[in-house]
């Protein structure tokens, strides 16, 4: 009988152990001082609830109570003061010489009463002695215990002994589990709990620690209960088992009887087991599982063959098992090995998917790796732990062998011999003794390290550091010295012998190792997720990164080394990834070329996702296995990342530091009670391990909601980030608010959504819900703290005016789903879900658009109470314009008059607004109230009802004037009366209410200003909103445009999303950067987007279709039309939570003809980036060839503060708030262009302290500083400047609302540190400041402080002479640069401070800037600056420069409705093409607006702004193609030429003589030239003035610079009109050789399809050297000459396809001029020529075929004939020719800007 000693578990009722007194009196307590608990109503000798056994015994020597863990009593120690393990067998005995001893008595406690055991002969054991003199064990419960003994001698004397000792253990209930197997052998097994099962299974009790089922010595019997309740109250046991193994259905040691799950109902079931221990104690073990016999999981799973056999000679031989399934779904399986020695057998793969329905097989390759004898099993199971086993007998040689091995993983897999091994000092080993199965059994092992005992092991596995069956404990060799060490194992064998094994190993100093950040490279392959690119950082543990090489193990994997050596770009070609495997692995190895660092090999995984989770919403909750979940939620129980959840989702946990998958089940909590589950996950455990949670999703925008908190504990600061965006800000909860929910819209790229708790303390997530972010709006940043404001997309919230209700087609829905016309709902403070402030069932759109019925709700906005439902709103386009908002409200027919209201409001939230209400009250009747509330403080002013009010309707109006910061509130009895009475004017409204500071506005929403209606204090009363109108204030019509004024025609190009910067390239295309990262290639002439490039195509820092905030783009000056190089400036994609040091400059080279990407590269990295949207901005190449780059500031006014502004805590850095410069025309590989602060690469330190490191070690130079947020800048080289001289103009965005300047310098001359506390922040807030225009000089400071550069004083400080610090201000007056509100008098500016050139006014958000270079408008606009105003007064602003200074400014004509043009929506950037057109990006409308110069036309004088021809030239043939003017042949005093010349209008340069291929049929003058299909046709000409006519014909390919000969012209001639008409080339008239040079009327036509000539209808009269054009489907021939009669003609002939006819004659008769079609292909301009006796004409005349009329235009600066000309853009470029003056043949060029 086993006896239990010591204290019992708390599971049992207290009893005492009584023994009879020796004198027969009543019994007394043996355990008088112990608290003992046992089964109810039972008095037993043993103590209960034990699973550890002990014994006492005697040996020779000094008498002492001893204890041993061995039945032979070896390795004994004194019992007194010992620690005895509970729930294990131990042996206690009296260690005394048996000589003279007659008996030994034992007591379980102090000596008292009858002994528990009497031993009459040695050995003297506490529990008696068994066979072979071995002791019988006993066991103790945890706690303190006492054993006493009395040794009696034959002479009648005795001696007493007492031993007090401690018993240690964990809970007994954790020792046993209800397990199951699908095999009668009960192996392999798994816990029954939380399984999904079908068919027959085997259920039994298993020892958790040993995995044993047949030997459970502490268990007396087991009673099983099936679905009979937790308390086992429902009837007798299902079965009682009285001996091990304890099977649910019974069985024998060699096999269990199956239990048929079909006897249970499908769904959740429970089995409970009552374990009765030999002590009498009782344990309850429970398991809940799911039965699914009808769900299809029981489909057949088959293997072929059913068994395998290997012979001794089969080492490294492989055999194949083919698996199939008849299930309609693919079967995911896992493979495990049972009874197989480590490394003896390998199976691949160990997991996979069997194709559905027998459509294919999954093959397992089984390989014998080692010569060991065993009979093992390959077990194949589905992921729900079911199905079949395969037993593979193997016969091989065996050896009686014991080996010391080591492994690098806890599972002891992939082990190697320890002997002779070497390890670095950083290694962590798992050392163990391996015993060959055929060897003599081992009974114990004692391990020694360098002669010192290290560990005693009494059972397998034999681990050097101890461990469990499944895992060994680690041995960290860092505790060892460098050198040789020895591990010795003394092995006790079952034979009674001992053997020794010894292994010597070496510890070496660890060499440098490569380190990749991030350390894990996981990609996603899916049809909906683009192939991926990942940027990783490479470093080493102790040395700079040496020269290295990278190798990969798969063709689908590639790596590119960036210019900055510490950056690698890892790419996965998804199409080449193997098909059919859930996870594909490859390796990436980095090796030092000189061997100076340990090579690094990392595994790259590609998750093949056949169905990415797209069914939204996705709802995930967290908790322990078995926890209940709400409907629609998926329970995550902490599984490592990398497996497919049963719900179809890929998700799981990674370690936050290493990003390696981790088991996070230990962090799951269930706080529920009474059957209610309240579950959560602890993101940071008590031991410091933090986890991140990954979900695989399609790329896109998601509405992410996170609930945090804990029902019981409030010791957390919860912080949750999703893909780097702060979803949950630092939040502390309490008993009054135990849970909190937050939300935001998050971008998912590369298919991974990652949640982390960085910055939090003890963060706990309750649930995550993912919705469609593209169809809902959670602004970020915003005043709504992550709350959703609309079910529409964010871009639909801000309206365009005029906006009229009920003429609406969009809006949030009413209860029936009809659109209400309102685009947003202002959140209340009740909770975080939209349904808490929006109830569509209280809204109804009336039939025929007759209004919106609104049922009043009981909430209120006034004061801190903000619980209004249905605060319906629209986002206002402010501060662009003045706005009038009008509402007409119909009162309820039967009001309750209990104070219910309907109100019309304007503001930014329920805490800051102006509202006018109609109030229905019994006491005071109906009245009007106007409410101003600021920061939850409300002021209510009553007003009388408007005149004429009849009790049925009332109208309200608000006039919003952003320029004046004023709101006027009016009321009227109705709209029909049209008489509004002014109630009140608020003249000093907070500027932020008008959206004046763009830094805190979600760019998709585009506003923080809202207007709308709401009800208060109601109870269902039905108001009707009859009208709601938002309109702009009317502006007066502009005056007529005069003939000398600047004017433009307007066109627009749509679908250019969020254009942020733009540049024209030499191929004629416009490249537009988007704030979302795309680059659009736009053909402005055609008005279409040709191609879109994603950010991942030009930078390694972006992947997929999104990912960067791109605010700058420029074209490399070395670009050609064929080869375009673009430079982009970009940073982290977030507008509100930008990553520090994420600024990057990238370069992308394109094929200029087809647009393909030839190469891309990140050139400069690590540039500053603010938390808000201040970022690396525009970049331009200067006239000096260097690249200049504007970097925004990190702060509002120079200092970091703790005030929670949109800029957050990030301070200025050395490279922030500056203009940078870099000469890129050098070998960049020799430069350090990684500007990341080495001490703080992620910005963690500076964000935490408010202090940045003051030195940046990179080769980018600072040109000028103190620039808060220069978005754009421009270069000016005035005509009188010396060669190479230029100015840099930059416009800086002034402080919008709030900011903090640094304090003045301290004693050390510094002003570093974060400004803390509201009082300090307010004292150093300069307030709103103007936008300023600067002329930047190198080394100067412009007023925005940067403590990291030692720049401390804001602007001009507070000097004693403030008048010296004033500049001219836009629209009159001056502006002071001083800041007296924050500085004491005599505060001087920084020594290097420079004043601005001009003030642009407040809140303009002046962004795009350029110098207008075109000669359009006769040069009137040339060298003026054009500034784009994004905010107040959206427009293009002309800054007028006189003598090199800005003296005035005005709105550019047509850039506002007030100047007769268009309404620009948040214009941001501007570019000019070489022809004088302007293109402006409209950020708020995602489009481009094109301004094309128009007007009567004027001349750009010869040689002004245009280069000279390579030679003097007259009578050349010419044609314009694209942006080039081509000239062919011609002559001068030196003869006739065959040259081909080209003028590039974009580069403003001529080709060299001989650079292009000449005319193939020889030198000629007056050839005919025409373009068709991009090719140039050159026909005829002559070698002399009146003779030498030729019939040559050829066509020229400008792209390839090649010629092709054509069939000869039938009639040789020169000076003919050559045009393209109906896809045929017509050669009309000309000069033929007959008669010494005669004019002809011959017309000949070349068919371009057949390349054959035919005769055409003759001209009505002979003509040579006429000019011609094709307009409106007819040929026009102007003027010319009849040489036979010596007459110059003014005639105009027209051919309409049938016959020739005459038109209105030219005002000036002439020949050898130039004619070009202009103005939308509807007019022809005829320029110059000659008449009479070689007199050059200056006439310029325009013919309109529609009206058959002529208009005389401005004459040429000097007359020309024989000119070459071509139309490029809005100019006709006229080259060469002859004049009538002394210089006859010319080499200059003049341009007619016809506009």
TrEMBL record:
SMART domains: Kelch. It comes from the Eukaryota. The keyword Repeat applies. Gene3D superfamilies: Galactose-binding lectin, Kelch-type beta propeller, TolB, C-terminal domain. Keywords: Kelch repeat, Repeat. PANTHER family: KELCH REPEAT SUPERFAMILY PROTEIN (PTHR46344:SF27), OS02G0202900 PROTEIN (PTHR46344). This is Kelch domain-containing protein 8B. It comes from Porphyridium purpureum.
């Amino acid at each position: 009988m086993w006896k239990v000693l010591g204290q019992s578990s708390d599971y049992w009722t207290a009893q005492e152990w009584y023994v009879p007194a020796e004198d027969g009196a009543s019994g007394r307590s043996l355990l008088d001082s112990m608290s003992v608990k046992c089964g109810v109503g039972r008095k037993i000798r043993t103590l209960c609830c034990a699973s550890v056994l002990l014994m006492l015994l005697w040996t020779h020597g000094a008498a002492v109570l001893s204890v041993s863990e061995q039945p032979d009593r070896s390795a004994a120690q004194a019992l007194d003061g010992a620690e005895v393990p509970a729930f294990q067998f131990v042996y206690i005995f009296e260690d005394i010489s048996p000589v003279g001893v007659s008996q030994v008595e034992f007591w379980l406690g102090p000596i008292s009463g009858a002994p528990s055991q009497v031993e009459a002969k040695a050995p003297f054991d506490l529990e008696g002695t068994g066979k072979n003199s071995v002791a019988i064990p006993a066991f103790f419960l945890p706690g303190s215990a006492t054993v006493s003994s009395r040794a009696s001698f034959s002479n009648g004397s005795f001696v007493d002994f007492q031993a007090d000792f401690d018993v240690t253990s964990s809970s007994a209930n954790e020792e046993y589990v209800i397990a199951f197997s699908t095999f009668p052998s009960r192996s392999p097994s798994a816990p029954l709990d939380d399984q999904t099962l079908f068919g027959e299974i085997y259920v039994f009790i298993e020892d958790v620690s040993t995995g044993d089922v047949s030997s459970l010595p502490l268990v007396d019997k087991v009673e099983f209960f099936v679905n009979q309740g937790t308390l086992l109250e429902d009837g007798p046991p299902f079965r009682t088992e009285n001996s091990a193994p304890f099977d649910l259905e019974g069985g024998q040691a060699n096999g269990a009887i199956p239990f048929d799950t079909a006897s249970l109902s499908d769904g959740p079931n429970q089995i409970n087991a009552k374990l009765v221990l030999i002590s009498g104690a009782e344990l309850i073990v429970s398991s809940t599982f799911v039965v699914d016999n009808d769900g299809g999981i029981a489909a057949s799973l088959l293997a072929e063959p059913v068994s395998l056999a290997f012979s001794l000679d089969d080492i490294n031989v492989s055999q194949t098992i083919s698996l199939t399934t008849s299930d309609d779904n693919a079967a995911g399986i896992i493979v495990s090995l049972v009874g197989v020695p480590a490394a003896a057998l390998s199976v691949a793969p160990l997991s996979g998917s069997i194709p559905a329905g027998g459509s294919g097989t999954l093959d397992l390759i089984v390989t014998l790796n080692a010569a060991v004898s065993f009979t093992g099993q390959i077990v194949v199971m589905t992921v729900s732990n079911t199905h079949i086993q395969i037993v593979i007998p193997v016969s091989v040689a065996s050896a009686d062998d014991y080996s010391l091995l080591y492994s690098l993983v806890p599972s002891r897999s992939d082990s190697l011999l320890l002997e002779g091994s070497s390890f670095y000092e950083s290694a962590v080993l798992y050392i163990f003794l391996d015993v060959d199965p055929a060897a003599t059994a081992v009974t114990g092992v004692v391990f020694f390290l360098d002669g010192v005992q290290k560990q005693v092991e009494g059972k397998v596995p034999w681990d050097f550091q101890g461990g469990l069956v499944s895992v060994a404990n680690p041995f960290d060799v860092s505790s060892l010295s460098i050198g040789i060490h020895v591990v010795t194992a003394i092995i006790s064998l079952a034979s009674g012998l001992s053997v020794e094994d010894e292994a010597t190993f070496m510890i070496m100093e660890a060499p440098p190792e490569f380190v990749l950040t991030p350390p894990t490279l996981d990609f996603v392959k899916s049809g909906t997720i683009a192939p991926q690119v990942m940027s990783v950082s490479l470093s080493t543990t102790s040395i700079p990164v040496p020269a290295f090489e990278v190798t990969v193990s798969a063709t689908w994997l590639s790596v590119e080394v960036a210019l900055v050596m510490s950056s690698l770009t890892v790419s996965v070609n998804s199409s080449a990834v193997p098909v059919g495997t859930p996870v594909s692995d490859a390796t990436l190895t980095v090796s030092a070329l000189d061997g100076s660092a340990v090579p690094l090999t990392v595994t790259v995984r590609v998750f093949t996702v056949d169905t990415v989770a797209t069914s939204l919403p996705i709802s995930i909750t967290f908790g322990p296995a078995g926890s209940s979940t709400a409907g629609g939620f998926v329970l995550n129980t902490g599984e490592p990342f990398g497996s497919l959840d049963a719900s179809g989702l890929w998700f799981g946990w990674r370690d936050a530091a290493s990003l390696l998958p981790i088991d996070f089940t230990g962090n799951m909590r269930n706080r529920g009670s009474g059957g209610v589950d309240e579950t959560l996950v602890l993101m940071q455990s008590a031991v410091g391990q933090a986890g991140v949670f990954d979900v695989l999703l399609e790329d896109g925008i998601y509405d992410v909601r996170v609930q945090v908190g804990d029902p019981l504990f409030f010791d957390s600061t919860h912080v949750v980030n999703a893909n780097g965006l702060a979803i949950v800000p630092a939040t502390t909860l309490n008993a009054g608010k135990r849970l909190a929910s937050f939300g935001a819209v998050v971008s998912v790229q590369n298919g991974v959504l990652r949640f982390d708790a960085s910055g939090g303390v003890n963060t706990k997530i309750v649930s995550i819900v993912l919705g469609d972010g593209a169809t809902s709006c959670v602004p970020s940043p915003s005043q709504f703290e992550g709350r959703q404001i609309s079910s529409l997309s964010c871009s639909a919230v801000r309206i365009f005016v005029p906006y009229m209700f009920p003429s609406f087609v969009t809006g949030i829905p009413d209860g029936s789903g009809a659109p209400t016309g309102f685009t947003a709902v202002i959140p209340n403070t009740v909770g975080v879900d939209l349904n808490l402030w929006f109830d569509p069932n209280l809204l109804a759109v009336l039939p025929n658009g007759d209004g919106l019925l609104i049922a009043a709700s009981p909430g209120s906005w006034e004061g801190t109470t903000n619980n209004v439902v249905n605060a319906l709103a629209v986002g206002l386009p402010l501060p662009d314009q003045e706005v009038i908002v009008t509402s007409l409200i119909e009162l309820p027919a039967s009001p309750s008059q209990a104070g219910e209201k309907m109100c019309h409001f304007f503001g930014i939230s329920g805490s800051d607004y102006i509202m006018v209400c109609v109030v229905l009250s019994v006491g005071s009747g109906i009245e009007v109230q106007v409410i101003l509330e600021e920061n939850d403080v409300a002021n209510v002013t009553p007003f009388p009802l408007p005149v004429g009010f009849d009790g049925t309707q009332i109208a309200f109006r608000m006039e919003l004037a952003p320029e004046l910061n004023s709101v006027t509130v009016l009321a009227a009895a109705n709209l029909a009366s049209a008489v509004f009475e002014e109630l009140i004017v608020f003249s000093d409204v907070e500027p932020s209410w008008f959206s004046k500071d763009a830094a805190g506005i979600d760019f998709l929403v585009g506003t923080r200003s809202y207007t709308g209606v709401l009800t208060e204090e109601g109870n269902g009363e039905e108001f009707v909103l009859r009208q709601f109108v938002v309109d702009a204030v009317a502006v007066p019509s502009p005056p007529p445009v005069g003939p000398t004024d600047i004017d433009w025609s307007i066109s627009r190009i749509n679908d250019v999303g969020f254009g942020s910067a733009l540049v024209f390239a030499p191929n004629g295309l416009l490249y537009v950067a988007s704030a979302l990262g795309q680059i659009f290639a736009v053909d402005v002439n055609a008005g279409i987007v040709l191609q879109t490039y994603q950010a991942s195509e030009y930078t390694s820092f972006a992947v997929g279709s999104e990912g960067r905030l791109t605010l700058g783009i420029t074209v490399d000056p070395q670009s050609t039309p064929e080869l375009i190089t673009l430079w982009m400036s970009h940073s982290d994609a977030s507008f509100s939570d930008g990553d520090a040091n994420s600024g990057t400059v990238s370069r992308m080279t394109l094929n200029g003809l087809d647009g393909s990407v030839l190469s891309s590269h990140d050139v400069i990295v690590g540039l500053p980036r603010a938390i808000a949207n201040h970022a690396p901005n525009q970049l331009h190449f200067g006239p000096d060839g260097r690249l200049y780059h504007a970097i925004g500031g990190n702060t509002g006014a120079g200092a970091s503060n703790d005030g929670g502004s949109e800029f957050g805590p990030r301070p200025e850095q050395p490279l922030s708030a500056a203009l940078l410069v870099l000469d890129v025309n050098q070998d960049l590989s020799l430069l350090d262009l990684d500007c990341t602060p080495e001490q703080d690469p992620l910005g963690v330190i500076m964000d935490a302290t408010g202090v940045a490191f003051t030195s940046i070690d990179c080769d980018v130079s600072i040109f000028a500083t103190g620039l808060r947020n220069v978005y754009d800048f421009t270069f000016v080289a005035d005509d009188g400047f010396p060669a190479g001289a230029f100015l840099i103009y930059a416009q800086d965005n002034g402080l919008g609302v709030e900011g903090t300047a640094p304090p003045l310098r301290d004693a050390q001359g510094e002003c570093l540190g974060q400004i803390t506390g509201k009082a300090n922040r307010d004292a150093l807030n300069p307030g709103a400041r103007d936008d300023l225009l600067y002329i930047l000089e190198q080394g100067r400071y412009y007023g925005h402080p940067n403590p990291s550069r030692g720049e401390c004083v804001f602007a001009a400080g507070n000097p004693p002479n403030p008048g010296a610090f004033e500049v001219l201000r836009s629209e009159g007056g001056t502006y002071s640069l001083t800041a007296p509100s924050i500085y004491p008098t005599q505060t001087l500016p920084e020594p290097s401070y420079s004043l601005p050139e001009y003030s642009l006014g407040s809140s303009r958000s002046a962004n795009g800037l350029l110098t207008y270079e075109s000669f359009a408008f006769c040069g009137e606009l040339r060298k003026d600056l054009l500034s784009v105003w994004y905010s107040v007064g959206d427009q293009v602003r002309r800054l007028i420069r006189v003598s090199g200074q800005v003296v005035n400014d005005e709105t550019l004509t047509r850039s506002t409705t007030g100047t007769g043009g268009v309404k620009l929506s948040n214009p941001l950037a501007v570019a000019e093409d070489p022809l004088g057109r302007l293109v402006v990006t409209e950020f708020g409308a995602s489009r481009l607006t094109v301004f094309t110069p128009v007007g009567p036309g004027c001349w750009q004088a010869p040689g002004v702004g245009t280069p000279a021809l390579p030679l003097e030239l007259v009578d050349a043939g010419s044609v314009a193609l694209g942006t080039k003017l081509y000239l062919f042949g011609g002559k001068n005093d030196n003869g006739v030429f065959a040259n081909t010349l080209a003028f590039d209008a974009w580069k403003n340069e001529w080709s060299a003589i001989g650079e292009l291929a000449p005319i193939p049929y020889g030198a000629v003058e007056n050839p005919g030239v025409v373009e068709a299909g991009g090719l140039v046709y050159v026909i005829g000409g002559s070698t002399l003035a009146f003779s030498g006519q030729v019939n040559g014909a050829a066509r020229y390919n400008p792209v390839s610079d090649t010629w092709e000969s054509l069939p000869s012209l039938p009639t040789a001639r020169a000076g003919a009109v050559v045009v393209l008409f109906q896809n045929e080339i017509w050669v009309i008239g000309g000069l033929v050789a007959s008669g010494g040079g005669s004019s002809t009327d011959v017309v000949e036509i070349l068919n371009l399809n057949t390349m054959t000539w035919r005769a055409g209808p003759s001209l009505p009269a002979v003509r040579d050297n006429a000019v011609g054009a094709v307009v409106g489907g007819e040929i026009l021939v102007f003027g010319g000459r009849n040489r036979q009669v010596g007459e110059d003609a003014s005639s105009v002939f027209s051919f309409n396809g049938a016959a020739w006819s005459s038109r209105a004659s030219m005002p000036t008769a002439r020949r050898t001029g130039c004619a070009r079609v202009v103005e939308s292909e509807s007019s022809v301009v005829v320029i110059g020529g000659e008449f009479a006796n070689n007199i050059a004409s200056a006439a310029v005349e325009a013919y309109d075929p529609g009206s058959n009329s002529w208009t005389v235009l401005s004459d040429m600066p000097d007359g020309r004939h024989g000119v070459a000309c071509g139309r490029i853009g809005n100019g006709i470029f006229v080259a060469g020719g002859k004049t009538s003056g002394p210089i006859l043949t010319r080499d200059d060029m003049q341009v007619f800007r016809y506009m």
